[in-house]
Amino acid sequence: MNNKLQLTTPKVKHSILLVLGCLNAILSVACQSNKTTTDESDLLSNRINNYLKQSELNGFSGAVLVAKNDTIIINKGYGFADKENKVRNNPNTVYDICSVSKQFTGAAIVKLAEDNKLKLDSPISTYFDDLPEDKKDITIHQLLTHSAGFGHGSTNDFDLTSMDKYFSDLFQTKLLFTPGSEYSYSNSGYSILGRIIELVSGQDYETYLSAKLFQPAGMQQTGYLLPNWENTTVANEYLLNVSNEGSHIAQYKQDGEIARTVLANGGIHSTNNDMYKWYQALKTNKILSQESFEKLTKPYVAEYEDESSHYAYGWTVFKTERDTKVITHNGFNGVSYCEFVWFPEEDVVILLASNAFVRPVGRMTLEIENMVFDKTYVPKELLKYMVSELYQFTEAYKGTVNDLEKELRLKFEDVIDSPRNLNGLGGVYYRKGQMEKAIAIYKLNTQLFPEDGNSWDSLGDAYFKVNEKENAIDAYSRALELKSENDDCFWCENSSSQLQKLNTTN
Known about the structure:
The protein is α+β, with helices and mostly antiparallel strands. Helices cover 47% and strands 12% of the residues. A hairpin with a 4-residue loop joins strand 10 and strand 11.
């Protein structure tokens, strides 16, 4: 017996040691693998953070979230949500997500279809009475894919025209093309979808979205008026990261309602943390079935002649250079910017929100994408935006408008290398209704770039606005004289039509 024990004990001991050795080896490999993954994530996080910190120095203000394989790589804010009170941006800062809102309208429509409340191929005459003949057969699908033929609609997010008048006027407008035959991005088409959601659900648009999309996804800080905005940081919007334009939420509260010109096509506010919850809810079919999600993100209608991208339901879909799928949308309200970029086949998402858009920000998600998928990629530095530099100067300028041209020339003539810079600056004051400044800036632009037809066209618009007819005629005429030889005269149509109006009234 003892002999057996003595004989078998070493075998048992050897087996245990062998098993322990294997376990140690497995755990060691697993630990090394986890450590490698962690190290790679940390390295990527540091690379992205360094890029974003440099971008902040040159004008980026907002928040960025990047996640890969359900692991958040970076989730931070940069710049200020409130410059005046030194409140910094963070992942819970509330931003206007602009036209990224359209994906919620698309999801709500698909959700109603999933619940057998409507059909995607139903004509809108099912929901609206007394439609003109050319609009009766427009389908929900065509509205979702911007192929119904409606124009872009009003750009005034606070036009409180009554609902009945808004839709009555919209349905009387001339269609751009036969429904279903072409593509033209249309905010007003999504306004119609918002009303259909209300008619079918029996609830107002925001209430339905909150109940069926936001609350199930755990999104407490997403909406127009329903969230409790008092306990959050709602970002002020800074035009070109210079002048404080307030926030849309403050205007919503003042109005007590959401204008039909923006409801369902834009203007929803959210945080990067909430938008990540939305991404997770879509990814795990928490809101929509897999079949419905595929309908939501299927590439339906080509956006361009080369068919490089297609519009789905509130999303744009195309292929990367790696031949992988991208589901994305961006939005811009004139001050704030938002972008949602999802690589489903590579399990990566990039969320970017900015309360102070400057043009170079539009490339940031591409730079981040390159860093995520290429360990050796060195991101291109986000450059300072000249229009923003000019605007900062003119906003701080205390002299007379008559001297503004001279002061701008004195300080910036050597660095202004394109007519687009002063044209952009003039456009800021044109849209603000500060026409004296706009004219002074446009005049300087025509002096520095006398052969640029678009600069003369812009000057003509400013003169036209203040009813200086002779000056307007001279400017528009000069713009047409400068038509380029290759017929790439994007300003010619405007100059010609404005001249026709002026000559008719003379």
